[in-house]
Amino acid sequence: MVEKNAMNTLLKLALLLLTLPSQAISNSPPFACDSANPSTSSLPFCQRSLSLEKRAEDLVSRLTLQEKISQLGNTGPAIPRLGIPSFQWWSEGLHGVSNYGRGIRFNGGAIAAATSFPQVILAAAAFDPLLWYRIGQAVGTEARAFYNGGQADGLTFWTPNINIFRDPRWGRGQETPGEDPLTVGKYAVAYVRGLQGDSFHGGGLGGKLLASACCKHLTAYDLDNWKGVNRVSFDAKVTAQDMADTYQPPFRSCVEEGQASGIMCSYNSVNGIPTCADPNLLSATARQAWGFNGYITSDCDAVATIFANHSYVNSPAEAVASAIRAGVDVDCGPFMQNHAAEALQQRKLFNSDIDRALRNQFMVRMRLGLFDGNPQTLAFGNLGPTQVCMPEHQALALDAARAGLVLLKNEAHLLPLSKAKLASLAVIGPNSNSAWKLLGDYAGPPCSSVTPLQALKSYVGDVRYLPGCDTAACAAAAVDDAAKLAGEVDQVVLFMGLDQEQEFEDLDRVDLVLPRMQEKLITRVAMAAKRPVILIIISGGPVDISFAKINPSIGAIVWAGYPGQAGGTAISEVLFGDHNPGGKLPMTWYPQSFTAVPMTDMRMRADAAGGYPGRTYRFYNGKVVYPFGYGLSYTGYSYRFVKATAEVIFSRSNGGRGDLKTTSVEEMGPDECQKLRISAVVRVKNEGDIAGKHPVMVFARHSSAAAGSPVKQLVGFEPVYLGAGEEVNMTFGISPCLHLARAEPDGSMVLDQGSYFLVVGDQEHPLELRPLNV
Predict the structure, then answer these.
(1) Which of 75, 177, 266, 531 is the least buried, fewest Cβ under 10 Å from its Cβ?
(2) C-alpha distances in angstroms, 72 versus 255, 290, 328, 362?
(3) pLDDT digits (tens, 9 = 90+) for 632-652
């Protein structure tokens, strides 16, 4: 995908020239099976009464070998004799329709922008699946509108990114829903259902697709470019235990519950095997065990890396053969198109292997309605340019930014500010007056944009601005000028943090502190100001701001992620109390000392003997700057367990382990697991005098956890809006097999009998799990 260094930029430019769509810009969508063309409309693959499998089989059987090979890249050229237009598989829609791929055009038509929602990591901070679904639904609607408006060459979007945010230095952590497997899995399901046009609860798709979603990057991919270690050659050493309870669950949820129609294999190897060449991963696990029914694409040039970087095979032909036979159906890039014939000639690959890949491809295109005649006359045909940047979508972008903002510090109730009492305001920082810095990566041109500086001017008459540093890199800072300005105004707001030059695809961080002169600038301004200052952190990944956390001259801190096109407005609303913040951190904020841990160490669990602290809130045993799930509000909430399950009894089945305290989830089977349910009713009350919305988060922990068990585990969450003094009962359903099971070293999932606790806020509820007749 998009690279940062010069060499990769040149390579990508070359790839672009090789893969430009053959189809000319048009104001009508491309489609096959035109009823006006009697030579093709009567062919079996055009008959909607037949099954997708039969239609795809018929189509593939009519292709010449050369035509088949031509379809193996992300740009599938047209096949005029069969009335089949070209198709571009590579489009992006991470948090809005984007121009990062090859399938979308923001010029040459009526659509010049798309709604830019908050970057995923900030949307995740809302812990609100319905919000995630609505964002996906809006993106899918706008994607189809681009297509119907003749400004798209495909409808397959390579999103969402559901890799676990394992290491805080990862440049692409901003693209993910955070570090918790349950949260990431729920995000995947909600977003995929929305993007593909399914109902929120699933089961309403009926085989058709509004747009196609793609779960990426399978698997254990969370290192791009760190201290000379590059993703295209990195071999991730992952235990079966970590694979079972951390790396794989989000992908399984994305496939089984979300019914995603696409999967992308990653650049890296896992335990010596490139993921795009691993039949156990792509075929045995994804297709057979999880029931995946869609197409599998490589990441861009990842098939080439099987030979060129991983040295897993001895020739390009063998790389193509290994990928296709493992289960890859589409190659992002021309590598498979260029070397498949050679692989066939050498009998490393067979026609049947290519036929299988093409059947998977064309079934997805058929589900998108592109072989049913003119899409504008069928399902979703009414969507066009007027559905892009709709007021409803832009309002949703603002709601999402509001919901994700996290209040980290608010000493002496500095916030919210009073418009009536504030005569002058200084806005300082490199992230104060740049709209594009609020978007994050994989963003397209936004419908509208308001910088924080512009938004704050609508609240205060006298607003004075100083960037302080030219960029977030802050190699040089106007410290004296900033301190002078701070002493002249009633209040100071600093917009600091990171930008896409600090963290990005193909760019991991080596530090967790603020870049260069930022800390000095913040500290001096805080010392010079008349009253405690407000610090806004713009960033995708966590930052060690311990100095600001303990500094009494810094009265309030807000983490704003990359809040999207409406971010400036949302931040201003929070600062002045028009919105009560309720977001919670979806990832742990580690201290700078964590950088002593090699990013290449994929282990999740702590190793006391080796001095390894573990990773994420589930296993990390070191100090934190801010913990997972942390976030303040302008009001206070109390929790109380009203009613909850006290005991769960299950059949004993230990898989021959000899340990009668451990029960195999697999041997219990899905029927018994379905019967085992834990119900918890929690009374939530807004104890303050300000209305607010926040997510209620339920954790579980074992009173005497076995070695390698999580310290605690998020088992449920749901947002709730409460007026001042209002209270409500919330019911959470918990599955012991899904939420309380732990992974053994061999990757099998087991239930431990004994005492557990459900935890909400500062409240705990005891729970006993025991086998039958014990």
Answers:
(1) 531
(2) 23, 24, 9, 11
(3) 999 999 999 999 999 998 876
